[in-house]
Design brief:
- The chain is an alpha/beta fold.
- The protein has a single domain, classed as NAD(P)-binding Rossmann-like Domain (Rossmann fold).
- It is about 45% helix and about 20% strand.
- Strands 3-2-1-4-5-7-11 form a seven-stranded parallel sheet, sandwiched between helices. It has a three-stranded mixed sheet with strand order 8-10-12. Strands 6-14 form a two-stranded parallel sheet.
- Strand 2, helix 2 and strand 3 form a beta-alpha-beta unit.
- Helix 1 crosses helix 9 and helix 3 packs parallel to helix 5.
- The longest helix has 26 residues.
- The structure holds serine (SER).
- The site of serine has 10 residues, from loops.
Length: about 325
């Protein structure tokens, strides 16, 4: 009998690598990865199998499902917001059609195993679309159901997939199998993430981690958004812990399938000030890009995460001071030494 495994798509990305290290440190899971290429050696030693391929490839997903008893899916593969605006059709293919393929595979596994496969989906603050900076300031901490009118293809894709996931939770029979166990879809709207290990690619919130990594590696940084552009951010280890916590909580405790989680909210200038204090030689200037500026203006200043706190005890371990002084500065300094 194959052992139950955790499948991680997009495993080579920023969240994926951090998730795999955390899961390996905790033990107790066998992990299978799927990404466009095989993972680096540092990751390969942590997992029991890896597949190189595209989530658009349904045959490959069927193969993964045939070889493994997939118990939980962390579906991290995605094309981020700024990259998505350069090629919206590709973003739609990866973020919607690809997600549908993975959902379908997980639903088939639920039916085959006779129990609900847990499907953990990182959504994003990109699902929000504030119409103006005035409204953004007036709303402040946004609740899950407010302003669900995204202006990016990525935001549209994530919002739609949240709904499709909720649909899969409700109606296994609609997928052609009346007696099947339903999928157990759970989603978190992540803020901009800041990792000490890597700089993300293709996101609009990349300026946050970008400034810190550039300063630590003595590289001048040109910030692509205005100094007053402000959104919620989070240290990547907190996001990973949230995904793992949400995956492990009993279904009965969940009152919704989509949760905000918050840690701290900062403007580009506030990050730059802190970076310059820690790295006095840092050179940061601003060359706002109109597309990124508009995207940032439409994202909320902060999120109301009361529901996640109440339902599954969410609380950030890294508020800004701790994230910066204890996690980011020591680790990025060591990385570029
Ligand atoms: N960090 C993502 C981006 O900037 C948002 O989820 O696209």
């Amino acid at each position: 009998m194959p052992k139950p495994v955790v499948l991680v798509t997009g495993a080579n990305g920023e969240i994926g690598k951090s998730l795999l290290h955390t899961v390996a440190a905790q033990g107790g899971f066998e992990v299978v990865t799927l990404d466009l290429s095989l993972p680096p050696d540092t990751i390969r030693s942590l997992v029991s199998a890896s597949y190189a391929g595209n989530i658009m490839d349904r045959y490959l997903l069927d193969q993964v499902a045939a070889h493994h008893e997939v118990d939980t899916v962390f579906h991290l593969a995605a094309l981020l917001s700024a990259r998505g605006e350069r090629d919206p059709e590709l973003a739609h293919q990866v973020n919607v059609e690809g997600t549908l393929n993975v959902l379908r595979m997980a639903q088939n596994q639920s039916a085959r195993l006779g129990r609900s496969v847990r499907f953990i989906f990182p959504s994003s603050i990109a699902v929000y679309g504030l119409p103006s900076l005035e409204e953004k300031r007036a709303v402040g901490r946004i609740r899950e159901e407010q302003w669900n009118v995204p202006i990016t293809m990525y935001g549209c894709n994530k919002l739609y997939c949240e709904h499709v996931g909720r649909y899969f939770n409700l109606y296994a029979h609609q997928m052609g199998n009346p007696s099947a166990s339903r999928l157990d879809f759970r989603s978190i709207r992540l803020p901009g993430l800041i990792s000490a290990d890597s700089v993300p690619i293709g996101g609009t919130s990349d300026f946050g981690p970008g400034m810190i990594h550039a300063a630590a590696s003595a590289t001048p940084y040109s910030c692509s958004v205005r100094p007053d552009a402000r959104i919620p951010f989070m240290a990547t280890p907190d996001a990973v812990r949230a995904l793992l916590d949400l995956a492990s909580v009993d279904r009965e405790r969940l009152t919704t399938s989509v949760y905000n989680i918050g840690a701290f909210s900062l403007s580009a200038a506030q990050i730059a000030d802190r970076v310059k204090k820690a790295f006095p030689a840092a050179r940061i200037d601003y060359e706002p890009d109109p597309v990124r500026t508009a995207i940032l203006a439409s994202w909320p200043e902060d999120v109301d995460d009361a529901r996640a706190r109440k339902d599954w005890g969410w609380e950030a371990a890294y508020p800004w001071d701790r994230a910066f002084d204890e996690y980011l500065v020591p680790n990025v300094t060591a990385k570029y030494r």
